[in-house]
Amino acid sequence: MERRSFLKKAGAGLAAGAAVGLAACGKSEQAAAPAAAPAGAPAVQTGLPEIKWRMTSSFPRSVDTLFGSSEMLANRLREITGGKFDIRIFPAGEIVPGLQALDAVQQGTVEMCHSCSYYYVGKDKTFGIGTAIPFGLNARQMDAWIIAGGGQELLDEFYSNYNVYSFLGGNTGVQMGGWYRKKIETVDDINGLKIRIAGIGGEILARMGAIPQQIAGADIYPSLEKGTIDAAEWVAPYDDEKLGFHKVAPYYYSPGFWEPGPAVHFYVNKAEWDKLPKEYQAAFRAASREAHIQMTAMYDHKNPQALARLLAQGVKLQSFSTEIMKKAYDVSRELYAEEAAKNPAWAKIYTEFEKYRKSQNAWFSVAEAGFDRFMQSVR
């Protein structure tokens, strides 16, 4: 029903123009009733232009959970507009490398991209907040902050410096903590650990003694197999299973505290968005929100099945110790305070983000956590 609601709202903005006929009756002219659209016909005005965009993705086509959201957006827009608004999707590397997707939109090389903002923390750590920062918001809380809690307005103000608008385009839910060749039980075990991890999460582990490594997805498996690295984080069971990490690193840790609810975004070039007819803008908003919801649903559906298969193959499921979690949390707060003291953009957004996190966690601890704890105890 929710999906139909989205399409209905978009369709209202794209309602077909009424065809007016003239009925002769002597010299008088009478407007005919609007012609009924055939069943299943796209709700699109006949006078709207044909628009073709290109979208570069930060993800390969093989990662269907992530790449699939961009496909849903494009397909739904074609359906709503009768094919008049057509977006062609290019996997990472076909136009630009995956980590340069935002740059391509900013510069006008393509009209839009599907990416994660924390890929760009090298430009400004504030980018991290748009997707996920360690010990931040979970997926539902992130939605609440962006959609209803003022987060979208704060992010749009920041992103305007990079010539883009942002639209939610998926969330994986809290991710796993990665694959390890040996057990990690204490903070001392992290010292000297060579782990494939990027961004702010990597910076926190580095402060705890780890040696973060920047390694492309396709190179993780051989790096683990050869012992070039000791551990690697990726996403969650469904995606991780495909890459076969369990064959060379048997210890699978949770939670991925550096990605508690990573929001993926569609980024659109400001000039291109402003040129769109308002009807297409409404259609885009509806289609992108549907794509956003689908990603979380697909991960929630597929991860339990994938984890069961992994455990059946001998994977050793582990949890980070309280000692490790508490140390990482304390380090994250030190890092955030340092950044706020020198980066006004970070300070402005993070201050509101942190207030929201505390409020949300207070509420979630009442009903959600209590119910979850009980249900998980009787499984």
Could you give a short description of this structure?
By secondary structure, the chain is an alpha/beta fold. It is 47% helix and 16% strand.
Description:
This protein has helices spanning 2-13, 64-81, 101-106, 127-131, 139-148, 151-159, 199-207, 217-226, 237-243, 270-275, 278-312, 322-342, 344-364, 368-377, and strands at 22-25, 28-31, 51-57, 85-90, 112-115, 164-171, 178-180, 194-196, 211-213, 231-232, 251-254, 263-269, 316-319. The chain has 379 residues and is α/β, with parallel strands linked by helices. Helix 1 packs antiparallel against helix 11, helix 5 crosses helix 6 (151-159) and helix 12 runs antiparallel to helix 13 (344-364). The strands form three sheets. The chain has a six-stranded mixed beta sheet, with helices on one face. A five-stranded mixed beta sheet has the order 4-3-5-12-6, sandwiched between helices. Strands 1-2 form a two-stranded antiparallel ribbon. It is built from 14 helices and 13 strands.
What is the end-to-end distance?
Answer: 30 Å
What is the SS-derived class? alpha/beta
Content of β-strand = 15-25%
Relative helix content: 40-55%
Elements, N to C (H/E):
HEEEHEHEHHHEEEHEHEHEEHHEHHH
Kindly report the spatial arrangement of strands forming the biggest sheet.
9-8-10-7-11-13
Major β-sheet profile? 6 strands, mixed
Backbone shape:
globular
Q: Low-confidence stretches at least 5 residues in length (pLDDT < 50)?
A: 1-41
**Strand tally, please?**
13
Radius of gyration: 24 Å
